[in-house]
Amino acid sequence: MSFNRRYVMRDGTVGWNPGKLNTNVVRAAGPIDPDVALFYVETPDGKRPLATYINFAMHPDTMGGLQISADYPGMLSKILGEYKGRTW
Q1: Of 9, 15, 32, 37, most Cβ neighbours within 10 A?
Q2: Sign of CA dihedral 52, 84, 59, 62
Q3: Number of alpha helices (DSSP H) and beta strands (DSSP E) in the chain
Q4: Is 88 a residue whose pLDDT tops 60?
Q5: Alpha carbons 88 and 81: distance in angstroms, whole number
Q6: pLDDT of residue 85
Q7: Are the CB atoms for 34 and 43 separated by under 8 Å?
Q8: Helices (H), 1-88
Q9: Cα–Cα distance measured from residue 69 to residue 85, given in angstroms and rounded to the nearest whole number
Q10: CB burial of residue 7 (10 Å; 0-12, 13-18, 19+)
């Protein structure tokens, strides 16, 4: 899901999103962080969520133009809700 958008180019510069088929790309300019941290708090009776904190080193993106998407935070919220037996 994650990828580094900065690439070292043949001329030694670092390019930003140069394109998948760009033949001037030598390698990614750095690593990605694949870890996901999750902290979830609910009421003692387990009936209501109080807080959810998720840390993932990736920003959500839109689809372009006038279209918008909840991207991975929206899907993560849906999956967490289903796992906990809730929909919101």
Answers
A1: 15
A2: negative
A3: 1, 5
A4: no
A5: 7
A6: 82
A7: no
A8: 71-83
A9: 24
A10: buried
